[in-house]
Amino acid sequence: MLTTYDTPDQRNLLDRTGQGIIGAPLDRPDGPLKVAGQAPYAAEYDLVGCAEGVLVGAAISKGSIAAIHRDEVLAMPGVLLVLSDKAMLRRPAQGGAAQAPAQDVRQIDYHGQPVALVVAETFEQATAAAKALRIDYDDQSGSGRFDPDALDFAPGEEPTVLGDIDEAMSKAAHRVDETYRTEGHASAAMEPHAAIAQWDGDDLTLWGSLQMVAPNVKELADSLRIPDARVRIVAPYVGGGFGSKLGISHEGVAAALAALELQRPVRVTLSRQQVFETVNRRSETRQRVRLGADAGGRLLALGHEAWISNLPAEDFAEPVTQATQFLYGGDNRYLAVLKGEITRLTAGSVRAPGEAVGMQVLESVMDELAHKIGIDPIELRKRNLPARLPGQDLPYSSRKLFEAMDEGGAAFGWSKRKPKPCMTRDGEWWVGMGMASAARVNMMQPASAQVRLEADGRVIVETDQTDIGTGSYAILGQIAGEMLGCPMDRVEVRLGDSRFPAGAGSGGSWAASSTGSAVFRACESIRIELAGRLRIDSEALELSGGIARGAGKEAPVTRLLAGAPLERIGRIKPGKTADNYAQASYGAFFCEAGVNAFTGEVRVRRMLGAFGFGRVLNAKTARSQCLGGMVWGIGGALSEELQFDPRDGRLMNHDLAEYHIPVNRDVPPIEVLLLEERDAAASPIQAKGAGELGICGTGGAIANAIFNACGVRPRHFPITPDKLL
Ligand code: MOS
């Protein structure tokens, strides 16, 4: 269902081209290819003479390598190479670092860290040799730090301090001061990490499973210490990423190093266990939230402090308070993220870094406050939406939070919710309802894309933008089709190759609005050229079904092209508006949950999310993003939890049998309402980020439904049955 809140903005071309393509719930063109096995993933290219590499992980948590008994496995059948003397194998350069980190080649920072690559003629031979590889360690695991509660914490960034929170808390008529915990998460993308590398002289081609092609080229080049121009990355189809493929990782660097050494192509695929053990985790968090309100339920004090962890040399700190900065008012604020150094695998971006766990907790504590005051949770939130960004006095660009709560609540039947817990029983089950706000910052990235109008009128879009299952192929084609009046069966989108202009990449919910705007700009430029050839003002140009019209003139587009293609590159970068407005996507979650009175089992019975993220580019792919996010929310609320051995920091549940993502039986009917808006400050196509919003608060709505059902408020996610009995 799609509700239009903002009237179409006739100043924006996408609202006056009138093709009915933009926003339409069109199928993804990559869908049939994927279903038929015709969309090759990173490991699925057949290269002549390709050797197979298997990574070996450290069997200790901290220390160094004393000796690697290479010769023993080099004698095994089919084994070609044991690579272990390259530091870049241990920790590839990430985030466009100028250089791969200088590192002692023998140093080990966490259990499972890749320390060697064994290459053989077949995968089975390489696997057997990797298992047999004997390594002597200088084991200093005893000096590791494995308990996230016992670390020395230091601020990641300057805390946000406004007014005096302690005084405001002491004067508040109603107050909540609670500490919650969330456990670590895995990205758990469907496609395991894999790469194939092939050198042609000094030129490297890498087929990889990656989210951000242009930065990944730079990272790979930096890791290998070769010029960027020597590296080509190909990633047209990516089976999910969720942050785990934002940066180049071990398999890509290892494949490139081995292929250079052997002078033949090398493929490195990670097992599911290796993905869990070596790819970014989301940090566990401890979060203290302080809310102090006056008698009318208006916040006077807002405190949110988070304690997170990462490896000593890593900068990333889960930005837990990101949405707390802008979502609610309160003149007295204290927001801080504190980082402790732990001996565990690297913490990094996992879907909606910050909000996924920060909103889950903030929205639970808001529910605690509403319950204490005795007002409806929606009403409490409405009383606390600030008119301007607290502390910075900036306007909000667009914010459909009221509308999401009202529309969503009406569609869900929120008015039937019982105000107190334990008022609805269905056989063995206590049943309750909960809600939460959704909020996620809106970000934009520099992006470029080429659009070519072929002499026969077909449209080709090319950018290195990836499609990680999100719908990039569909929406980029729709923008071009709408702008150039070209039916979709004559539009082709080519993605994920570093030979194409650099898109924004897939991350931070910025792909659609950023790379989409680059396609939009390229099409604007083509329209201006076509109008010139028709000798009319471009404002008057109408393009439809291959015909150009305007100011009483008309010509087939192919005649205007006169046998030659017309191509333009569109470029976009974040401008001043990013600094002049508080920009975010908003929504509301509603959940009905049952709690088994005897076993503590929780069953989410139904959920609804209502979201506003600017222009909806494709109602089907947008809805699917929201659904996927909400399914993640179920996992974060009820089952997902990385478990580390407290003795050595080793990840214990390193596969999908032990790390419990929601399965079909866990996912109830979910309804999505899209509240279409226009955000002219966010991007030229007036769209904001959609991808991650569906997980930003979901777990809070589920926890609040659990409390409303049975009166128990566990403050430790995931809410497993033991916490309810
Ligand atoms: Mo996202 S966690 O920026 O893929």
UniProtKB/TrEMBL annotation:
InterPro entries according to UniProt = Ald_Oxase/Xan_DH_a/b, Ald_Oxase/Xan_DH_a/b_sf, Ald_Oxase/xanthine_DH-like, AldOxase/xan_DH_MoCoBD1, AldOxase/xan_DH_MoCoBD2, AldOxase/xan_DH_Mopterin-bd_sf
Q: List the Pfam families.
A: Ald_Xan_dh_C (PF01315), MoCoBD_1 (PF02738), MoCoBD_2 (PF20256)
Region Disordered, as annotated, extends over 1-25
Drop me one GO molecular function for this one. Answer: iron ion binding
Q: Which SUPFAM superfamilies match?
A: CO dehydrogenase molybdoprotein N-domain-like, Molybdenum cofactor-binding domain
**Span of domain Aldehyde oxidase/xanthine dehydrogenase a/b hammerhead:** 36-141
Name of the protein in its database record = Xanthine dehydrogenase YagR molybdenum-binding subunit
Q: Which organism is it from?
A: Paracoccus tibetensis
Phylogenetic lineage: Bacteria, Pseudomonadati, Pseudomonadota, Alphaproteobacteria, Rhodobacterales
